[in-house]
User: What shape does this take?
Amino acid sequence: MAGVAGLGLGGAGYATFVEPEEISVERLDIHLSRLPEGFDGLKIAQISDLHYGPFTGAREIGAAADHVNALGADLVVVTGDFITSPLLERTSTPASTTLANAGRCARVLSRIRAPLGVFAALGNHDVTTNPGYISEVLQAVGIRVLRNGRAPLERSGARLWLAGVDDVLDGQPRLDQALAGVPRREPLVLMAHEPDFADEASLQNVDLQLSGHSHGGQVRLPLIGAPYLPRLARKYPYGHYLIRQMQLYTNRGIGTIGVPMRFGAPPEVTLFTLRAGRPAGAAH
Assistant: This one.
């Protein structure tokens, strides 16, 4: 009995103090049939769900930024939830502290460098707090926020588009506006915080959707999986998917919410290498 209790305490200690700080770097080759030769080999790094707040701070987010820089990516995307909203968490954290955390998070992320830039979409915690202010502090450190917008990226005479929609749960997402003016023959990567938005995005001119929101469940139990997944992250909770002709990747994120614990779902930095060619079957 004592051994079982000790094992349980040891597992709780690992989930609380060890796994939340053990960043896993996931590497994937993503084949896109419309990718121009000039973008073959392009490297995109993704981080998500930083949740600067009660349980995650400069140390953890700084470690993620350092991992990203070490990968030497051409482009970096951050797919939302820069802070933890006191409204959604039902904590006693005052709004002024939450907004200050947005500035602190932006300053840590300002160390990230990528030749084609650092781009972001907002998450539900961001838009329920103060999306205008959070966008402002991010853009002040050189991180371009795409809220129903798009940006062309040029390389070797070819063009790839990066787009972002406003948060699907609590914002005002306009996919039509985000894709406006993008030629149908040119490839497009979409940032959307909630992964289950892929069912809608896959009906449009999108080649790859990058998402977060789920934390991979944050706690995944053997034989059971995640006891809880948030809305719009239950169908595609983590990893690589193929939906119609569009690919989706759901990143497990860096921070934690609810409880300062991860188990079976370590924090993640993802590195994608884009390749020209037809996509193979995804992992799910």
Observations:
- Confidence is low (pLDDT under 50) at residues 1-17.
- Residues 2-276 form a domain with the Purple Acid Phosphatase; chain A, domain 2 fold (CATH 3.60.21.10).
- The helical segments are 2-18, 58-71, 86-89, 95-109, 124-127, 131-140, 175-179, 198-201.
